[in-house]
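Re: weekly structure request thread

Next one in the queue (319 aa):
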Amino acid sequence: MASIPTTIMKLLFRTGLKHDIRDPDKLVKHLRRVMNAPLAPSLLPRGVQLKRGKVAGIPGHWLGTTDPHFTILYLHGGAFIGGRLDTYHHFCGRLAHALNARVFLPDYRLAPEDPFPAATDDAFHVYRELIADPRPMVIAGDSAGGNLTLVTLLRARDHQLRMPACALAISPASDARGTLMSRQANSDSDAMLSHDMIKMATDIYLAGADPDHPYASPITADFTGLPPLLFTVSSEECLRDDTHAAAQCARDAGVPVQILERDDMPHVWPVFTFLLPEAKQDLPSIIRFLEKNLTSTQVSKAPTQTANAGTGAIAEISS
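Done, posted below.
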């Protein structure tokens, strides 16, 4: 059973965010009004500093400790239409503090003004610049940012760039075709999103581009050569099957995978460490996964894309 704060948050999402709006322009205005509004104070942990900057010409926020040993690229969610970087300060700040890392949150271009592939281009260009730094790196993101996380890994591999130590994808939107069962089956149980909202937002983002393209629907690609992946997902959300399909792609390619799955949670619940007890409980599991792979990369100096290849084990953690 969900905690009282989580139950309240789900109710707020259901009443304030989840609306099946038929007009694309009205949906864009609605999502930006809700997603770009301050949800709650998202304070930085002690010892983590915030500054604004640019990477590869893309503006964003840097969070970090005084002498970071690792780099994290975090790609925010928001249906490729909205999203507020400040919402992620506490979660990313906790990661920076726990791992002694620096985190860059790029303010990548959004649809409809800049449709596909603008967001993927921005994410890839930022990655290409950050991966040139010798410090071990993680790429992570939620929802639309989870899509960009997987797509950026595929693009980096296709361009023969160095892989990060590992990646974290929080409820990634991995199928732009909308063919997976949970999109419709969980449309009522999902407190934040519905089948119709996701479909319209995807149409706005693609703007006529082919949804079968691997850089739009990463589950249409071969995941061979990707680093260890950690997925998180709620069993009651529309993107449940997007997450499991991506995990299966990794298994098929011999990529080490872990899944952190909970019942009765809202979409992307791990991000809300400043509000939800369940997010606070699950943060140590996320940090352990990242730390293990970062430390292994730092010590071995071996190519991350081949480390532990072939295990393909999925560890499911359910509550």
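The two ends are 9 Å apart (CA to CA). The chain has nine helices and nine strands.
Next request, please.
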